[in-house]
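Ticket 4471: requesting a sanity check on a complex prediction with WTA. Repro inputs:
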Amino acid sequence: MAPSPNSQPAIESILQEQRLFEPPADFAKDAAVSGADQYQTLYDKAAADPAAFWAELAEQELHWFKKWDTVLDWQPPFAKWFVGGKLNISYNCLDRHLTTHRRDKPALVWEGEPGDSRTLTYAELHGEVCQMANVLKDMGVAKGDRVGIYMPMIPEAAIAMLACARIGAAHTVVFGGFSSEALRDRLNDAEAKVVITADGGFRKDKAMPLKPAVDQALAGDAVPSVTNVLVVQRTKQAVDWTDGRDVWWHDVKPEASNDCPAEPMDSEDLLFILYTSGTTGKPKGVVHTTGGYNLYTHTTFQWAFDIKEDDVYWCTADVGWITGHSYIVYGPLSNGATSVMYEGAPRASNPGCFWDVVQKYKVTIFYTAPTAIRAFLKMGDQHPNARDLSSLRILGTVGEPINPEAWMWYHNVIGGEKCPIIDTWWQTETGGFMITPLPGAIATKPGSATKPFPGILADIVDAEGNPVPANEGGYLVIKHPWPSMMRTVYGDDARFRRTYWEHIPPKDGNYVYFAGDGARKDEDGYFWIMGRTDDVLNVSGHRLGTMEIESALVSHPAVAEAAVVGRKDELKGEDVFAFVILEGTHTASDELKVELKQHVVKEIGAIARPGEIRFAAGLPKTRSGKIIRRFLRNLASGEELVGDATTMEDQSVLEKLRTDG
Ligand code: WTA
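Returned structure tokens:
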């Protein structure tokens, strides 16, 4: 069976895409991995013995307090990497640079939204991380505890993550755009002891409060595990205060020592939990551990961005997502790179904001999402053209398939036709890049993530796990464990097994990782990602489960039943479209639509706000009562129905669904 991806932005044009862009010769000449042959040699070596390949890099690239005994212990689907090894990722990101010329090199360069800015050198960052680590210790946080982080994009977000890692507490960062309800669920699932937050942050020209959401999440002892809230002052908004629980960072910081030795962690000790949406149930806590994650984010960052000592690297993601974890904080700092952090976001009121940052800091490597590229494309070439972008040498993209039109604009207008574009395919679960060009080695094709990273055995298979021929759609799978793979779903091994490793039935004990994406491989072995094959939406590069949004809608008293699907959207890639059946006495109205949209924002956050709600009398269901989502997707996009409607229980439902009511 071929998968039917939910979202296929411009899939027709991707299928016809023939252009090939070789790495520019002067770029390739200085690249760490240079030319297709070198990539192939590296790839073949890694594929022949992945464990040996990673062990060699682990020895060479990371500092270990104690070397491991076993490289890989694989009891499918549970992997352990560098078993018996001891290290600390905060040590690898900070301390080991302090005895080198990097001591006074900018580690974090931060640009605030109202135009304020701050640079922290490696020595300064180390000092602040130690201070926060000591404050956490004073609050009773110990190795193995969990800490929630709910922050705007300010340096303290990264400091908080590194401070947790330093003392062996696992962080769970919750994106600042999530609602208090979403925050509460995550804090409870992780049983967090402390929450680190701020009074607010600046977002799209406004000061947005954050602390009230924490207060609401914790109200009435709703999260009994939390004993303290550490609050960073950012916007100077008025805040409510709970004495004994809440602590201002600026009150305790001056007294906190800037010396805090990094705790030697076992390779497999929990580093962080990051919640992400799946097909069913509540968001799942993706578990990442220390050693493999450190090595993999370090290596992928180094090779895919071809990092050089003087590079100024900027990733525009939020630290609340995996991209921010792996490629704003851990990957760059482990390599001793300079990582730019920006508090703002693309918006029509400041159409040059990204390009101002590139110009101001002479950014050399720029990494963003297709949705941002499309937004800037729409705002016009005059904005980037009015800035000096000549410092750029590599461009990257992540989060959703990039349509060739956006790719070409990125290449021509932002990259001045000289910067390789790395289209990086990966997931919260994979920890780091899985399929990506190495910019000096692999010729790119607009819309293709190209080839797997060395050590990654990727393939396209059918539902039974049989490889499909070139250019045929199938399921994207990974056939061998890799160091930064998720270890489990927090507290739910069975869900981990079911969701990722048994979806494609294991054959002869060979388990394959099921990514949930549809893809095809072309005759040159290039991967083309087509989008999710499950009920996960990708809205502006953010993952949302249709079921989460449906549950949010149904929790409103007026709603009897809801079905959510994705509808293609020119800017966001995909938008949330909800079909809603009302409870008996409630009547459909535009006001109710507004109210329901607001209700979803309250339950989940603004990123989940439905673009459209359509009231319905019934939903298309099979005789066994299953909603036929395929039809709903067709209806949402105003397309002809694809497939056979005769299996439906009530044929008249479809006609009524074409319009409200
Ligand atoms: C999608 C983000 C096409 C994909 C790092 C995946 C992509 C999901 C790409 C993971 C890409 C990510 N091309 N699709 N380059 N990168 N995706 O967990 O559907 O937020 O499964 O991780 O985003 O989203 P997540």
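Notes from triage: The pocket of WTA is lined by residues 276, 321-323, 398-401, 423-428, 449, 515-517, 529, 531-532, 538, 543 (CB under 6 Å). Leaving this open until the requester confirms.
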